[in-house]
Amino acid sequence: MTSIPGLRRLEITGLSSKLCHLGLPLNRFLSLSLIDIINLTMEQLLDILQNSPSLERLELGRSPTERPSQPTVTPIHLPRLMALHLIFMPISVSNFLLTTIHFPNCSELLISSDFPESPDDVVSDCLFSSNTEHFFPVMRTLLNRGRYKDIDISREDPQSMALLLKFHDDDCEDPLDHGALRLHFRLHSVQQVEHTVRWIVQYLEPDKPKISIRLFIDRFEEVHLVDLFDSHMTVTHFALRVRDDSDAIRPNPILVHMSRPTFSRWPLPEMVDFVYGIAEEDKSQDEAAQKMLQDRYGSSGVNSGNSSGGHSNGILHQTPLKRVRIVAYIGAGSSMLGEVEKILPEVDASLFGSDDESIW
Length: 360
Fold this sequence. Notes:
Layout: E1 9-13, E2 31-35, H1 42-50, E3 57-61, E4 76-77, E5 83-90, H2 91-100, E6 101-102, E7 108-114, H3 121-126, H4 135-142, E8 148-157, E9 160-168, E10 181-187, H5 190-201, E11 212-218, H6 223-232, E12 234-241, H7 253-258, E13 273-277, H8 283-297, E14 323-328, H9 334-343, E15 348-353
Parallel strand pairs: 1-2, 2-3, 3-5, 4-6, 5-7, 7-10, 8-11, 11-12, 12-13, 13-14, 14-15
Antiparallel strand pairs: 8-9, 9-10
Helix pairs in contact: 5-6, 8-9
């Protein structure tokens, strides 16, 4: 390696961890990618990083998989690091790296972590919670970057959930390794989802206007999750796919919640775009979605020109709805689309294929 003096970028995948014995010109590297390095210890990685002060881009994937044996290590300063990717790392390892590496000029951060069969407190105890004062301004800056801010929470079953956050400038399905901020967490309970969202919102500046996001909630029924986002962010685009299994609550509590204003406001009052994933073989859920649109925006609602938003006890602000899309499997959805067009004739309403890659 020393015979290649111009070497600045290095990608290694699936090799032995004996990197420290190769004579690598680490002090000259601008970009380093270590993926699936066999038996790479945290001590070896820290030695590599300590000798790589010029790094501008660092990518680590499934290497290493354990914290160091020593609980306390000297911080590693990488002042030129602009992009950090931690891919499929245990959350305790990601936490340790964010605690140890100081990278004040980061403009691109990707973290994907799994919580394998772990109790609810793993998030509250381990989610980048200790000695990360240096990380606070970095995260705060990243949360304000990106023209498009998408947050998706999805539920496959009671023990398998995910949170995906994508803040990016291009409105398209970019690869996972592109964008200002990407977080992808595999979770195992609603409580873990809530803890993770609270970890994110702690970095928002309370004295600044709320950031505007596009929110997709997939097969959840917990109203408090909607309220959590509503309290800390401005949800302009909202997508909901309801559960239609035998254990689903009917009607979906989120749809019911969206239909009922408090004495001071509607839920998600700045929503301008609503996407609904049609429930297969479950007309009651679809009818609940139609009722929500009628209650909020119908003949007595804001889209009809009544500023009270359908609430007779006082004037409640909400932004007029501009677009409704019905996501449906092949051959379905036309009946519901017709009902939506009757309720909201001035709104852009359309069908959307369930196999489309992007809900927006």
